[in-house]
Amino acid sequence: MSFGPGSDSISQILSILFYGVFIVFIFYGQRIQMYVMIREVEGSLYKLKYIKEEGRKIAIETIKEIGKPQTDPSARVDRFLEYFQIMPQSMDPAGIVYKLDHILDVRDTRLKDEVKLMAPAGDEVQVNNLENTLEAAMALNFIYKVVRHYYIQGKKTLSLYIIMQLQMILPLVMKEAEAYASALKAFSYGQPIGDGAGALVAAKLMHGYETRKVPKDCVVATVPIEGRTAFIIKAEGPGGNVGKPGDAVKAVIAENEGKISSVIMIDAGLKLEGETVGEVAEGIGAAIGGPGVDQFKIEEAVVQYHIPIHAVIVKEDIGDAVSPMRKEIADSVDKVIERVKNVILERTKEGDKIIIVGVGNTIGIGQ
Amino acid sequence: MSDTSTPATTKISTYLLMIVLVVLALSIVALLLAVQVYLVGNEIVAGYLLVIGFIAMGMATYVLFQSRKRVASMKIEAPKVMTTVECRKCGVKSVREFQRGDFVFKELDACQKCDDKNLITAIYKEVKEKEKTYGV
Q: CA dist B65 to A48, A139, B28, B60, Å?
């Protein structure tokens, strides 16, 4: 075999190749870049599809195992996964919170009824856990469909900017999807999740004391702490439930005719990169996430009676918040109780009445 | 908790596998040619072919390993969750694997040392790997 006259011809071939590549990159560089991005998005979409299907499978298996339905629940689960809610019109924002509250109540009732039909043999705790499992599967289904929408749109239009935007936010989207995937297993097994840090603190404070139900889906216990009377509020466990702490706080304040010297809220807070999981921080304001209805109600109640409101948070990231509770978070409970006691000693007087609210999903946490 | 996944999602794409195999075959041909050309006496060309052969072989192997890694990362890992059982009276503590139906502050059967009931005091998962701090 011969390669021509020698090294000169090889140099020529390499030069031509070099110029060829240079010219191709000048004219088609952006397109090549786009295909690389499309390929990357495609890989993630493939993974999202797998996670979504796995979520559906876990949900159906759990329903069959716990609910003992007479018929195959698959069709009903598929219908559940496609549920949507329409947010209230905000052109005239006055009164929107109560409209949103009503929509969320209807949604909650509808989903719970649907789960009861799917799993007739499940008790209240199991129905709550199943509802949470299905909601996680629903979130995964939605994420997959949105990413697929932009992927197809980008491919159809061959728009670098659509693909680029999708590719740029993809790491965050994937992180959230993976968090929901691990939440699915935690919910189906009824394990406590990171978001339940606040509920766990409240449970530890109220354990051994008599509890009573308060609206909606919450419990309250009257506990003596450092010579003060504390009303400890949390969602009713151990089923997956966040309750409506806004209504509970309002009810307790109303029962005491506004004679509450301080409200202390404990919740899981989103940490920044570089911060440690389970770190405890203290601040001011209503520490509660969600659509904002409960935060609004609590703020409304404390403003009406000029009650100071304090917050203690346990730092964690989104993945930790919806997956089984990490040891660092479980261990931080005693630190939080210490901080709460400090706030009580520094900010209230002996004989005062205070409210302590443990916010978060109380799955796997009793009282 | 099962970690099983459907065959459709765990196998490497046949298209990708074909390309990798073709590149691997070509790289082997390039290496053989390099030997042949070297024996003829054309050392420079042999050198070029050797470099091309090794680069192609390296890239093909890298792509193959990367795709296998991607397939492996597709599994939903179920973390090991532990339950701490404690006797409030005598303080005897034990840690066991989580069982369905466990919840924090659930009362269990009587303690073996005293007659008081055991209580679940914590349920948690342990994360082994440490978070990277990036030196800041």
A: 21, 32, 19, 9
